[in-house]
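Data card: per-record layout.
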Amino acid sequence: MGEKTISRRSFIAGLTATGALAATSALAGCAPSATGEPASGNQAQSTQTSWRDKPEPITDIAETLEADLVVVGAGNGGLVAATTAAQEGAKVIVLEKGGNIAAAREAIGALNSNLEPDHYEDPAKLMNHANMTQSGDANMLMYKTWAEKSGEMIEWMKETLEPKGMLFPFEWHRPSADLAPEAYYPAMCYNPCLDEYNPDGPNYGAYMHLEMMREVFLELGGEILFTTPAQQLVQDDTGKVTGVIATSKDRGNIQVNASKGVIICTGGYGANEEMLQDLCPVVSEYCVLGDSVTEEGDGIRMALWAGAYLEQGGSCMIWNRGLMNDDTEFGRPWQGQIFLPGSQPFLHVNANGERFMNEDQCYPMSYSGGLNQPGHFSWEVWDESYWDDIVQFDTCGCSRLAPAPSGTAFNADVYDCEAMSKEHLDNFWFAPNLESGAIKKADTLEELASAMGFDADKTAAFVASVERYNELVAKGVDEDFGKEAFRMSAVDEPPYYAARISGELLVTTHGVVTDTNSQPLREDGTAIDGLYVCGNDQGGFYPHNYPSNFTGINAGRVATFARIAAKHALGAE
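The structure for this 573-residue chain is written out next.
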């Protein structure tokens, strides 16, 4: 494998250094630290939202730097923009709030590239499907631009990183057309890994493409200033953005002038409690886990202060993987744990023991289904045949718990980087949570209901719900909620299990309104010259929720529009 061969131990150590194990640490009860206590709903309505108020200009500048392009944020978008510009010969300075580059997302969505000529997806079909998930509010010009230019992006990424040892296996698996003729999982996901690809998993070299991109960027003469958060944009009398003021603990306030433009990619506002309460109030109140740590809305706020505006909506990517124990409470500080099997389409019942939904939903929709029930959570229920059920369910993307056909997916636990198997599921996910009591286990449904805290009436409702569900499974038709037959399995083989599932806030996904060049727009439709907004700071894709049957779409659109922004700023289209 050459000099860059890495062991699992060194891989995990490297992830720890870059902060990529924030999610994994939550498995041991170490959820990302919160930034203060959440406000109540009434407080959120009455409190002045100071995050909207433009601050006084910073005037005490200790140091001034000059660059062609300034990129704010060293993550999935920022490093793509910075490397693209550096390859064009530009002098690029990256301002990064944290102490290292952001964690890479291993799944990158790109349509119809020359790397996979045998896999073509109809962009119009994808666009229309996506728009339905957004109540018709998505910006189809943004989707169209991604569909047309993402292929070039992934081709560029491979050409750039292949000399560093990165491989780009393609994930094309979807449920059998015989079982699920209407299921829509477009073939669009690339899974970069370092030095070797093991189709049967695990792949310890996943999550490494940003590390390799940083190497390329620095070799091209680029500069990254860590622990130097951007504070304000600099604008001239015409409103053109000409630079950024950032603060370094050691160097004071630094003004970085940018002759070609400033690109903002700071990752949304998932760690800003005030913005969440204002824009997405329900999210903080009824999630039990969060993965945003440094994403405090810095980029969005700076863009708004410069004259941009925020798209309508209030969207977050929320996983249905927040495991609750008996004493778990909602809100900050987060008290839940990550539970990857929470994304499986097992039977769900509410706090009254009643089935209430088609459990085969994308992550945020599944979470929302439980959110609107008594107690704001759902009970996930399964039986001893769970492994056979999981294989039958054949879920895609990062919810997958059973190996996919070789060569089509990373057959490894996204949290533990171990190969998927029943033994791994039992040892890593079930055993610790059975011991803690977060997973309930019993030999009869009545005993399980008692462990779930149900009284006699709720127990009767629960048993009736399971019996009705088993009846529908036997019929092969979900007459109640319309779940596909292959995503149903009877709960009739003891012992029985139940886990209380709520939300895990990953990131916010709605943002500043931009044109297709990633330039933010004013309310009158004019673009703010010299400024670009990308990544989870950029709107247009998910004003309401995240279509998670499109594996890799967010990392793919982030990289695509970051590359577009850099080329447009330099006139290198």
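Known properties of this structure: The two ends are 37 Å apart (CA to CA). Residues 140-161 form the longest helix (22 residues).

See the next section for split statistics.
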